[in-house]
Amino acid sequence: MNKGIFPPKEKWKKHVSIEAANNADYKRRLFSFIAMAIIAVTVLSSLVISNHQIYPLILTITLIFSFFSILIVLLFYLKTKALYQAIVIASFIIFMLIILLVYSGGKDNTALYWLMFSPLVAYSTLGIYKGSALLVAILISILTLLYGPDIGQAVYGDTEKSRFLGSYCIVILFAYINEYFRSQSFATLNTISLEQREKANSDSLTGLPNRRFIDSCLVPKILGEQESFLPMAVIMADIDYFKAINDNFGHDAGDKAIIHVATIAKSKVRNSDIVARFGGEEYLLFFPKTSLDNALVIAEQIRTNLANTPLKIEENTIPMTASFGVAEVNNINYLEQAIKLADQKLYQAKQSGRNRVIG
After folding, report:
1. Does residue 32 contact residue 72 with C-beta atoms inside 8 Å?
2. Do the beta carbons of residue 283 and residue 299 sit within 8 Å?
3. I need a labelling partner for 161 at 20 to 30 A (CA). Which of 123, 155, 204, 354 fits?
4. Alpha carbon separation from 23 to 30, 190, 246, 287 (Å, rounded)
């Protein structure tokens, strides 16, 4: 079995999420994208309808093409809900539209004025890194058209070009500052929220996930990704004669016994497996994509290893054993029943003399 599901970052914590914060950021990007698409479609259609007779042919074709492209991207999102892909495609369309607008000059060479909204849209939809990359590409392209060789592009006055570039860079700067500190604040709040959730879902003594984690994190995760988990084996384990350890050696020894068993159990599982402290001296182990027969083998390995590894506290050597109940679940709707069945099998193991595996 593979080791390494623990410090510095336990693998089980990947199942702990902060959906509320992530959903808020998703909605921010979604509303920005939809607003951008609706405004773009409205403006483009208005420009074509009111000015097609006086616009150069290339500009009219560009506006019509952009109108239908943005509309198709919006419909694509509504059908697939693939927001990121829709934003990337829409951003590329707007990038090409900007280049062609600057190239053609627009009506009365007013194309440059339409670019002022792009930094805000880029950062609100793409985020700070991808948004910055898009704006750098736009800026380089505009500089090439304004100050590069003549390839048939519109001619702008020197004063107009310098004032536009100065204003555009200022807008980019303030949009960047705003997005940078927004993203930093969002990341900090996410980290704090995630740490709090991880703490609430972990056992303070062993660092294992606790019962709350199973109910609030693991079960919803399995519901959403059943093909990655099922069939799944469930093992319920309980330390034998735990009360005697507490009575004879003290509660500190009892705590060390709980940690000792947790350490041995963790050493025998894969990265995808989960060892949880279910309560008291009980542990609940989950083995995704594992049959009952394989789980019985794993439980026996843990049992044997524990029986051969006594707990040493100062001058005392305390024999350690545990009993195990094993069950298999093939349908997430029967997970609770499988846990109850594993608990029943554990009880049978206790009644049969302890230090054994029953499944």
Report:
1. no
2. no
3. 123
4. 10, 12, 47, 30
Q: Give 100's Cβ-side CA count (13 Å radius).
A: 17
pLDDT recorded at residue 2: 38
Which range of residues forms the domain containing residue 338? Answer: 206-358
Listed residue (176, 108, 103) closest to 136, CA to CA: 176
CA atoms within 13 A on the CB side of 86: 23
Q: Are residues 219 and 336 in the same domain?
A: yes
The count of domains in the chain is 2
Burial of 78 (0-12, 13-18, 19+ CB in 10 A): exposed
**Domain shared by 109 and 236, yes or no:** no
Quick one: 189 and 210 in the same domain? no
More confident residue, 40 or 196: 40
Tokens of 340: 């109850």
Both tokens of 315, joined, read 């001058």
Q: 135-189 pLDDT, tens per residue?
A: 999 999 999 988 988 887 778 888 888 999 999 999 999 999 999 998 888 888 8
Alpha carbons within 13 A on the beta-carbon side of 120 = 8
Shared-domain flag, residues 187 and 211: no
Identify whether 299 is part of a domain. Answer: yes
Hunting for tokens 């700067």 — which residue is that? 173
Q: Please compute, for residue 33, the number of CA atoms within 13 A of its CA located in the half-sphere on the CB side.
A: 28
- Token duo for residue 209: 């996930």
Task: Calculate the CA 98 to chain-centre distance.
Answer: 33
Count of helix runs (H) and strand runs (E) in the chain:
12, 7
* pLDDT of 67 over the 70 cut: yes
Single pTM value for the model? 0.64
C-alpha 341, offset from chain centre:
33
Q: Would 12 be classed as within a structural domain?
A: no
Residue 255 falls in which region: left (phi positive, over 0), alpha (psi -120 to 50) or beta: alpha
Is 60 exceeded by the pLDDT of residue 290? Answer: yes
Given a contact cutoff of 8 angstroms between Cβ atoms, the answer to whether 154 and 107 are in contact is no
Instruction: Give domain status of residue 142, yes or no.
Output: yes
Query: Does residue 292 fall inside a structural domain?
Result: yes
